[in-house]
C-alpha cells in the first residue's frame, strides 16, 4: 500500500553496466509500491560501457524510467545533482546504482519525512573494505570539524528529501565531485530545513563493477572542492 503520494528515485551511474538493469528492477519491485506516483531517473555520467544502452532498453518499455546523459564524465556530485534537479515528483530519493543497499529500508525514511524535510541514512554497519571505512570516517569528522556537526555518515548514498529542498538550494550547490553530499547537507542545515539521521542496516558489499571513490584524482578533487566550499561559506557569512 502506498505511503507517499509521489516519489522520484534518482540513480547516478558511471560504468554500471553490470548492475544498472538489476538495480532498476530492484527499485520498481521494492520502492514502486510505496508511492502512488513514481519515476526513476538514471543519470549516466559519461559512462564508457553500455550503461546508457541498458537503461534506454528499459526506458522503451517502462515510461516511468527516464535516462539523462552527461556527454562526458562530470563527477559523482554532478550526476546526483542532475538527478535531483531533474525530479518531477514531490519527494526525491537518491542512492547509488551499485546495489549495495537494501532498498526496503527507504520505508523508514519516507515515514519520518511526513514531518520533516530531509532524511539521511547512516550505514550501520558499513560493509566496505577497511580502508574505505577509515576514509569515510575521517572525511565525516573533517566536514563536521569545519562546518559544525552535519551528519555521522556524510557520504551515505541513502537520502530522501522534499523537492522544495532541492529548489531552495538549486542556485547554491556548486560541488560536482565527492564534496557534493557535504555541501548539500551543510547548506540544507544552514537554510533551516529539518534533518533527521536514521540507521540503514541493509548495507552489502559491492557484488559487481568497480568503485571509483578511492582514486587519487577523485580524492584530490574532493579536497579542492571542500576548500573552495569553505571559502564560499566564509564569504557568504560576511555579506
Question: What would you say this structure looks like, in words?
Answer:
The radius of gyration is 17 Å and the shape is globular. 40% of the residues lie in helices and 21% in strands. Strand 1, helix 1 and strand 2 (35-45) form a beta-alpha-beta unit. The longest helix has 23 residues, at 216-238. The protein has helices at residues 20-30, 51-59, 76-85, 106-112, 130-147, 163-169, 180-190, 216-238, and strands at residues 4-13, 35-45, 65-70, 91-95, 118-123, 158-162, 195-200. The termini are far apart. It is α/β, with parallel strands linked by helices. The protein has a seven-stranded mixed sheet, with helices on both faces. It contains eight helices and seven strands.
Helix content: 40-55%
- Total beta strands: 7
Structural class: alpha/beta
Query: Between the first and last Cα atoms, what is the distance in angstroms?
Result: 48 Å
Helix and strand succession?
Answer: EHEHEHEHEHEHHEH
Uncertain segments are none
Rg for CA atoms = 17 Å
Helical stretch count? Answer: 8
| Major sheet strand order | 3-2-1-4-6-5-7
Mean residue pLDDT: 93
Largest sheet: 7 strands, mixed
Task: Summarize the model shown.
With 239 residues, the chain is α/β, with parallel strands linked by helices. It has helices at residues 20-30, 51-59, 76-85, 106-112, 130-147, 163-169, 180-190, 216-238, and strands at residues 4-13, 35-45, 65-70, 91-95, 118-123, 158-162, 195-200.
